[in-house]
Amino acid sequence: MTDISADTATVDETAKVETPFQRFRSEFFESWIATGALFLLGLIIILALLAPYITPQNPYDLGQVDVLDGRLPPGSEAFTGYTMWLGSDGSGRDLYSAILYGLRISLAVGVASGMIALVVGMAVGLVAAYAGGRVENVIMRLVDLQLSFPASLVALMLVAILGKGIENIILALVVAQWAYYARTVRGTALVERRKEYVEAAQCLGLSRTRVVFRHILPNCLAPLIVVGTVQTAHAISLEATLSFLGVGLPQTEPSLGVLIANGFEYMLSGRYWISVFPGIALLLTVVSINLVGDHLRDVLNPRLKK
């Protein structure tokens, strides 16, 4: 009976063992702040994706924009009959529609630039960590040189040279951000390179490519996810800054930065909604991403767990 009871207890304990994903999920949702931020971010993404179907106006279509609807306060009725719940800007765009379309641009620019910068920085960091010697010194001096300049200044200079447009904005953000990923990957890969499983893989005669991408890289993904989340929020803020300064996206593509800039001249005249509502949307997006990224750092790094 004692052996049977012991075996049953062992089976029960084995059945209760959590998978890594289940453990990650339970630890992440322990924080109600991070859970709320994730829910808010998901809602923002859904609203941005469904913008063409849940908005009364396409702000990109000049045929749907009427100058006579310009600077209407929140709750006013447009000449075409629908209600502008958030008011309109100086060009007659419905702010509710423009904000959701602007979120699509901001999220697309942030995610695209973040993914490209992650791939570039990851490749550079892995090469630096695994090659070592002069190759590592040259690469890291380039990274230090890149990081010595503010990202906003680098992006501003590149956009001023390349001109306006989504592609140029993404390219400028990639150049401004790849060094953060490279330094993160290099630091993590140096730690992993000295571990026994890498030495065992090398002793088995595995190729450098397989050792790097099959053994070292998977163990560098956790800090990369955290950095990627934070840098995505930074890229969204930087794009809005460039657009606000007039060197980002053109007026025909109303991103959040463009919408805020359009209402800046009306702030002192009492037409606060033109800048305030897009600013609130930008703030909620960036803060939600940062809160999620901050909690991901705590969950994925055991040393930071309280």
TrEMBL record:
Residues 103-293 form the ABC transmembrane type-1 domain. The lineage of its organism: Bacteria, Pseudomonadati, Pseudomonadota, Alphaproteobacteria, Rhodobacterales. InterPro entries: BP-dependent_transpt_permease, MetI-like, MetI-like_sf, OppC_N. Pfam families: BPD_transp_1 (PF00528), OppC_N (PF12911). The keyword Membrane applies. GO terms for biological process: transmembrane transport. This is ABC transporter permease subunit. The chain crosses the membrane at residues 32-54, 105-130, 216-236, 272-293. Belongs to the binding-protein-dependent transport system permease family. It is found in: Cell membrane. It is a multi-pass membrane protein. Keywords: Cell membrane, Membrane, Transmembrane, Transmembrane helix, Transport. CDD domains: TM_PBP2. The keyword Nucleotide-binding does not apply.
